């Protein structure tokens, strides 16, 4: 049985969606893009209505994923999990992920490179920790290993960079206290003892030299 579209009205709270009225009564809502071909007076049957709703769900999932990606880069698994958490089916979530990948808006290879670069620049940590974080994001082992290889990470320099900020906050002239506090910090960032020990000595020497310089200038 066909019904006639008697009104198409933009939603007040979300102008990107419109309410569809059939035979004078509200029937369902659609994204503007899904309703672009509809006009008042057009008659549609139940199959057409179901098709419209299905197309709209696809568009809603896509727009939700784009919004989620707008805040920061995400892994494919993160986008999938976000969509299923919002009530979309696993099939639609996976289809949306594939669509975003095809459009080069999503991809674990690029995400892994970006994650490693940002961490190394702003919050340095070991390769082991980077690998663990990416695994938690759902990135597969092969992709992670390739990204780490491409990054060509110097762990000692990363540990030194991470330790600098911590060392500047440790106000002590005692080596053992300095070693304990800064060493523990670096260990929590995933650096192994073989990397931590020479970095600690380097940071201590620089800290000691700075203290001597300050004394000379007083």
Shape verdict? elongated
Identify the strand order in the major beta sheet.
Answer: 3-2-1-4
Helix content: 55-70%
Strand content is 5-15%
On the 0 to 100 scale, the average pLDDT is: 91
The number of domains: 4
Global Rg: 28 Å
> What structural class do the secondary elements suggest?
alpha+beta
Compute the number of helices: 9
- Could you give the distance between the termini? 93 Å
Low-confidence stretches: none
Task: Summarize the biggest pleated sheet.
Answer: 4 strands, antiparallel
What string gives the helices and strands in order? EEEEHHHHHHHHH
Count all strands and give the number: 4
Structure description:
- It is a single chain.
- With 218 residues, this protein is an alpha+beta fold.
- The protein is built from nine helices and four strands, in the order ββββααααααααα.
- The chain folds into four domains: 1-44; 50-106, Arc Repressor Mutant, subunit A (Orthogonal Bundle), CATH 1.10.10; 108-151, Arc Repressor Mutant, subunit A, CATH 1.10.10; 155-217.
- The chain has helices spanning 46-69, 76-85, 90-102, 108-122, 127-136, 141-151, 155-169, 175-188, 193-217; strands at residues 3-10, 17-22, 25-31, 43-44.
- Strands 3-2-1-4 form a four-stranded antiparallel sheet, covered by helices on one side.
- The longest helix is centred in the last third of the chain and has 25 residues, at 193-217.
- The protein starts with a strand and ends with a helix.
- The mean pLDDT is 91.
